[in-house]
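Good morning,

Attaching, inline, the C-alpha coordinates for the sequence recovery test we're adding to the shared suite. The designed sequence is right after.
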Protein backbone atom coordinates (compact mmCIF):
# COMPACT_ATOMS: atom_id res chain seq x y z
CA UNK A 1 0.00 0.00 0.00
CA UNK A 2 1.19 3.44 -0.76
CA UNK A 3 1.49 6.26 1.72
CA UNK A 4 -1.44 8.12 0.15
CA UNK A 5 -3.81 5.18 0.62
CA UNK A 6 -2.76 4.75 4.25
CA UNK A 7 -3.24 8.46 4.90
CA UNK A 8 -6.68 8.39 3.27
CA UNK A 9 -7.74 5.41 5.41
CA UNK A 10 -6.53 7.11 8.59
CA UNK A 11 -8.24 10.36 7.58
CA UNK A 12 -11.47 8.45 6.87
CA UNK A 13 -11.39 6.78 10.28
CA UNK A 14 -10.70 10.05 12.11
CA UNK A 15 -13.40 11.85 10.13
CA UNK A 16 -15.89 9.06 10.85
CA UNK A 17 -15.10 9.41 14.56
CA UNK A 18 -15.58 13.18 14.30
CA UNK A 19 -18.94 12.79 12.57
CA UNK A 20 -19.98 10.20 15.14
CA UNK A 21 -19.18 12.61 17.97
CA UNK A 22 -21.10 15.37 16.19
CA UNK A 23 -24.13 13.08 15.92
CA UNK A 24 -23.82 12.11 19.59
CA UNK A 25 -23.68 15.79 20.61
CA UNK A 26 -26.72 16.50 18.44
CA UNK A 27 -28.72 13.80 20.20
CA UNK A 28 -27.60 15.08 23.59
CA UNK A 29 -28.57 18.67 22.91
CA UNK A 30 -31.92 17.81 21.35
CA UNK A 31 -33.66 18.27 24.70
CA UNK A 32 -31.49 21.08 26.01
CA UNK A 33 -33.37 24.26 26.79
CA UNK A 34 -32.12 27.70 27.69
CA UNK A 35 -33.64 28.11 31.11
CA UNK A 36 -32.73 29.78 34.34
CA UNK A 37 -33.81 28.02 37.50
CA UNK A 38 -34.03 30.80 40.07
CA UNK A 39 -35.96 28.92 42.72
CA UNK A 40 -35.86 25.28 43.77
CA UNK A 41 -39.32 24.37 42.47
CA UNK A 42 -38.16 22.56 39.32
CA UNK A 43 -35.37 20.47 40.78
CA UNK A 44 -35.94 17.53 38.40
CA UNK A 45 -35.80 19.71 35.29
CA UNK A 46 -32.75 21.54 36.59
CA UNK A 47 -30.95 18.25 37.24
CA UNK A 48 -31.88 16.98 33.76
CA UNK A 49 -30.50 20.14 32.10
CA UNK A 50 -27.35 20.01 34.25
CA UNK A 51 -26.73 16.40 33.14
CA UNK A 52 -27.09 17.40 29.49
CA UNK A 53 -24.62 20.26 29.89
CA UNK A 54 -22.19 18.02 31.81
CA UNK A 55 -22.25 15.37 29.06
CA UNK A 56 -21.77 17.95 26.30
CA UNK A 57 -18.83 19.53 28.14
CA UNK A 58 -17.31 16.07 28.62
CA UNK A 59 -17.34 15.36 24.88
CA UNK A 60 -16.01 18.78 23.80
CA UNK A 61 -12.26 17.95 24.14
CA UNK A 62 -12.65 14.77 22.07
CA UNK A 63 -14.75 16.62 19.51
CA UNK A 64 -12.11 19.34 19.14
CA UNK A 65 -9.30 16.77 18.93
CA UNK A 66 -11.02 14.70 16.24
CA UNK A 67 -12.03 17.82 14.29
CA UNK A 68 -8.52 19.24 14.42
CA UNK A 69 -6.94 15.93 13.48
CA UNK A 70 -9.36 15.51 10.57
CA UNK A 71 -8.61 19.01 9.27
CA UNK A 72 -4.86 18.57 9.71
CA UNK A 73 -4.81 15.19 7.96
CA UNK A 74 -6.96 16.59 5.15
CA UNK A 75 -4.53 19.48 4.68
CA UNK A 76 -1.56 17.09 4.69
CA UNK A 77 -3.19 14.85 2.07
CA UNK A 78 -4.01 17.81 -0.18
CA UNK A 79 -0.46 19.07 0.29
CA UNK A 80 0.98 15.68 -0.65
CA UNK A 81 -1.10 15.49 -3.82
CA UNK A 82 -0.23 19.08 -4.73
CA UNK A 83 3.48 18.41 -4.22
CA UNK A 84 3.35 15.27 -6.37
CA UNK A 85 1.49 17.13 -9.13
CA UNK A 86 4.02 19.96 -8.96
CA UNK A 87 6.91 17.49 -9.29
CA UNK A 88 5.30 15.82 -12.30
CA UNK A 89 4.74 19.13 -14.06
CA UNK A 90 8.37 20.19 -13.67
CA UNK A 91 9.94 16.86 -14.68
Amino acid sequence: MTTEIIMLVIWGAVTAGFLGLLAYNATLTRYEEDQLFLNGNNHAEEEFQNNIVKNVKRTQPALRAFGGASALLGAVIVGMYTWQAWQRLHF
